Amino acid sequence: MSRFIVICDVDSTLINEEAIDQLAEVAGSGAEVAALTQRAMKGKLDFAESLTARLATLRGTPASVFNDVLGKVSLTSGAASLVDAVHDAGGYIIAASGGFHEILDPLATQLGLDSWVANRLEVMDGQLTGRTYGPIVDAEVKAKFLVAFAKSKRVPMENTIAIGDGANDLPMMRAAGVSVAFCAQPAVRDAASVRIDVRDLSLAASLFGRRAE
Questions:
Q1: What is the mean pLDDT of residues 132-156?
Q2: Predicted TM-score (pTM) of this structure
Q3: CATH class for domain 5-15+74-208?
């Protein structure tokens, strides 16, 4: 493959956890939010609607929750190896998340991602308001982010690989040349051109002719 792009979902793909669930656990609304997260991932609930409902439960939580959650989330096995393999092969690796910049930014910087997009949480007087600010990063925004990045780098869409696990990733995966269902929900598995059922992102390196170390 010539110049190419790999785009990864973040929650339950690039990392093992769902950041919103971790935030809710600290805020005391963990069970309620986890149930909404599962419905959204299965495509049974509109993402923006579910995100608004989940975030409302975080209102009044101290902003220090970000540090608490960063200590709880973990990179998926093979994530760093995949990033290195993409760069060694002359490609770009980016991330699109329905989660939050406050959690993703340090992880993306640590990994050396080329670009990323996520939601931003509103904070006032040191507390979460239970809202985002700026446009919500939903399924369509994730797909548009991939298309725009590919255009900016002059990479044809057939040279793009999208890796995701939930319904919110389907438009992004449909836009890509290769779609990868990573330990995914049934609807995503059915729609993808490739399935990876082992939680090791380095396995995706074979799609662009590399073996991640």
A1: 96
A2: 0.93
A3: alpha beta
